[in-house]
Specification:
Blueprint (H helix, E strand, L loop, with lengths): L2 H4 L15 E4 L4 E5 L5 H8 L4 H4 L10 H18 L4 E5 L6 E9 L18 E8 L8 H17 L4 E7 L3 H9 L3 E11 L4 E11 L16
Parallel strand pairs: 5-6
Antiparallel strand pairs: 1-2, 2-3, 3-4, 4-5, 6-8, 7-8
Helix pairs in contact: 5-6
GO cellular component, one term: cytoplasm
Pfam families: Acetyltransf_3
Protein name: N-acetyltransferase domain-containing protein
């Protein structure tokens, strides 16, 4: 047994706000609820079905191990327990059903203190989202519905974000359609970046949605790493 496997897992605070389950569709039935350690086996199985999820992200390893999933959840739970808000959800077909996808939200630290609202002068709050759906459940609108919910209900209404951003590989048309379905618009069509795990440069595009039109002049900073 490794040292990591031997230690007790970081618990998720069940009282964190926005944990769910939240019903976001009747037909097909679609719920989002906080990811749990019990989701790890299915999370690992799905991510290893093929390399689509690996190839579509900048960080996932392949093969994806239970230790990778556990570390991902522990880091998320530490941040969530500090903020008092859940930030990572499983997409499910029933309130306590098996995970069929993942979506998360976070805030961009590189914008903290450096971007201000053009009208009020207060510091901007810039959120971001990321997601994946099981290859067994793609093409059913799960990612689009979950993205809309996280953008509108969580980041805008609950957390008071001014802007929400997301990135996709320029050639990844399905992912781009998800962002557009969530109300986002492309603000950077082509940005060539180096992806360390692939050891090559890839072209990404950047999307954003604004709470009010006053912040539309605040665009993605291409001088930083995405």
């Amino acid at each position: 047994m490794t040292q990591q496997e031997d230690k007790a897992p970081v618990p998720r605070n069940k009282d964190n706000k926005c944990s769910g389950p939240f019903k976001i569709s009747d037909n097909p039935p679609h719920y989002v609820s906080a990811v749990e350690y019990t989701d790890i086996p299915e999370m690992v199985r799905v991510i290893n079905l093929d390399k689509d999820i690996y190839n579509g992200t900048a960080s996932f390893q392949y093969p994806y191990l239970e230790s990778h999933a556990r570390t991902r959840l522990e880091n998320a739970f530490i941040r969530d327990n500090q903020s008092g808000y859940t930030s990572c959800w499983a997409m499910r077909s029933s309130p306590d059903g098996q995970m069929i996808g993942w979506i998360h939200a976070h805030f961009l630290p590189e914008d903290s203190g450096t971007r201000v609202h053009p009208e009020s002068g207060r510091e901007l709050k810039v959120g971001a989202i990321g997601y994946w759906v099981s290859p067994e459940h793609t093409g059913k609108g799960h990612a689009s519905r979950a993205a809309r919910w996280v953008v509108q209900e969580y980041l805008f209404k609950e957390r008071g974000s001014d802007i929400v951003r997301a990135e996709a590989y320029t050639h990844n048309v399905p992912s781009r359609k998800v962002l557009e379905a969530a109300g986002m618009e492309c603000e950077v069509e082509e940005w060539t970046v180096f992806i360390p795990k692939l050891q090559k440069k890839m072209v990404i595009c950047c999307y954003a949605i604004h709470w009010d039109d006053a912040t539309r002049s605040v665009v993605t900073d291409k001088t930083r790493d995405p």
